[in-house]
Amino acid sequence: MLSLPCHKIAVHSAWALVLLAISVSGQELHHRPPQTSLKPPAPALAPQPPTAPVLPAGTSLQVEALRSYPMKAGETITATLLHPIYANGKLVVPQGTILQGTVVNLTPNRKMRWSGRIRGDFTPYHTPQVQFRNVLLPSGPLPISSTEVSNGAPVLHLTTPGAKPKQSFIAREWAQAKGRVRDQLAFFTAPGFGDRAKQLLYSQLPYHGERIASHTAWSFELTAPVTLPASQAALPDPPPATVHPGNPETWSVHAVLLSGLTSATAKAGDPVLAIVVEPVFDKERKLVVPQGATLIGKVSAAKAARSFGRNGKLRFTFQEVKFPEGFHREVQGSLAGAATEKSQNLSLDAEGTISPRNQASAIAPLLLTMLAGHALDQDGNMTLQTGVASNGFGFIGRFVGIAAGSRSVAAGIGFYAAGLSVYDNFLHNGRDVVFPKDTRIEIDTTPLRAPILKPEGQ
Q1: 189-197 long-range CB contacts below 8 Å, 24 or more apart?
Q2: Largest Cα–Cα distance in the chain?
Q3: What does the CA dihedral 49, 53, 56, 58 come to, rounded to 10 degrees?
Q4: Distance (Å, rounded) from C-alpha 362 to C-alpha 147?
Q5: 194 three-class SS
Q6: Which helix (H) or strand (E) holds 181?
Q7: pLDDT tens profile 351-374
Q8: Is the pTM of this model over 0.85?
Q9: Is 449 buried (19+), middle (13-18) or exposed (0-12) by CB count in 10 A?
């Protein structure tokens, strides 16, 4: 066997130890510092302040004065909001909020003047033009810019009475007669009898002061956007849809008419459009009809007023709702309520037909004719008889009848008043149904299940 020299063995051993040390040092573990991101951490987002709600120009408002005011320019009027206001589907101004306005002008009411003249009333009747300029919010008065309106009139809220069984002609006439008696009794029994009695006395005078009656309502539109305070808290959403066991779900939709509608000119098939002013939620509180949607319908029946006191009739229904995004949904909707001028004295039946109440009465003409003929009787006190005979022409008729000291003059005045009563009750044209632009209506709709939504144009 061959053997290596000792010095070579020592050299090889030294190199082996060096390589071993290098290998061990290369496998040694070291704790690495955690890696840091090159980008600085994003700062925490600050909470965003609530967005201030905005009422756009053209927003329709309806207010009502709760007391009477003098009929004079410059008079300040305080009224309350009849219906809540929504912005972006949220209630921002509740019903009953106070608004302040001013009578900016008085214009002659020639129709009322002429009607008064032929009945012995020489009051120079006027129509006030009112402009509302402030909304009184909890945070303080908020100025608004609105249209000047002269459509003020006491408001009547119509509601459907519900389904009624069919009645014969005699039964319907008897029901109407009982209704007129109830209305006459309400003059004495309803609250405010003292004020009504005073106004009745004034109507007998040949001249009396004017006033803006209590419960007069005005409908107007904003002419510029109004930004409400950001702190104006959103109030609860409207209640969900009504569901009765065994009946389909019903949506109650509040809207305003986009154009005027009257039985005098409307024809069956004419389009009817209304804009939704309050969002509608279904029974599960999901939004189904947003604010700003358009109701699309048509006139289903219309009849103009005619001679001999025959009143007009009007009925319209809705078949479709158009969403702001352009989608459509089919519905079946009929009129369930409306806010109209009280002077129209309208009624709404269960089918949604609107018509003026029949105010004709044969009692007044017969009574006035009998009183006028009583003046021609030769027996009895002539002063008393002439005063009674001319009763239908107000105080001026009584004064002239008594001052003339003539039974014939008194009887002539009495027969003239009786003739006016006959004309008013039976001979003149009937009254038409008139719904001005922005009339507030309530529609009960039943959604059709198929299709739910469809794009516009399909």
Answers
A1: 195/68
A2: 182
A3: -170
A4: 44
A5: helix
A6: helix 169-189
A7: 788 888 776 665 666 666 666 566
A8: no
A9: exposed
Instruction: Read off the amino acid at residue 328.
Output: H
Q: Kindly write down the DSSP assignment for every residue of 303-332, as one continuous string.
A: E--BTTTBPPEEEEEEEEEE-TTS-EEEEE
Q: Exposure of 280 by Cβ count < 10 A (0-12 exposed, 13-18 middle, 19+ buried)?
A: buried
What are the structural domains, with CATH classification, of the chain?
Answer: 54-164+196-225 (2.40.128), 251-359+431-447 (2.40.128.260), 363-427 (no CATH)
Q: Coil, helix or strand for 257?
A: strand
Q: What is residue 29's predicted lDDT score, i.e. its pLDDT? A: 39
Checking DSSP bridges between strand 126-137 and strand 98-108, what pairing results, if any?
antiparallel
**Can you tell me the distance from the alpha carbon of 242 to that of 385, in angstroms, rounded to the nearest whole number?**
63
Query: Residues of the chain whose pLDDT is less than 70?
Result: 1-50, 160-188, 190, 192-193, 196, 200, 204, 231-248, 359-407, 410, 414, 448-458
Distance CA 369, CA 353 (A): 36
| Closest among 423, 375, 427, 377 to 397, alpha carbons compared | 375
Rounded CA separation 106/75 (Å) = 11
Phi, psi (deg, nearest 5) at residue 183: -65, -40
Is 128:153 a contact under the CB 8 Å cutoff? no
CB 313 within 8 A of CB 285: no
**In this predicted model, what pLDDT tens digit does every residue of 45-91 receive, in sequence order?**
555 556 778 888 988 899 999 889 999 999 999 999 988 888 887 88
Please state, in angstroms and rounded to a whole number, the distance separating the CA atoms of residues 29 and 184.
107
Write the single-letter amino acid at 417. Answer: A
Pick the closest to residue 152 from 183, 120, 127 (CA basis): 127
C-alpha–C-alpha distance, residues 63 and 275, integer Å: 19
- Alpha carbons 238 and 276: distance in angstroms, whole number: 13
Please report how many Cα atoms fall inside a 13 Å half-sphere around the Cα of residue 93, on the Cβ side: 29
What pLDDT score was predicted for residue 26?
46
> How much is the CA Rg of the chain, to the nearest whole Å?
39
Asked if 130 and 147 touch (Cβ cutoff 8 Å), the reply is: no
Q: What tokens does 416 get? A: 């003239």
Where do runs of H (alpha helix) occur along 247-405?
Answer: 363-374, 382-389, 394-404
**Alpha-carbon distance 238 to 251, whole Å?**
11
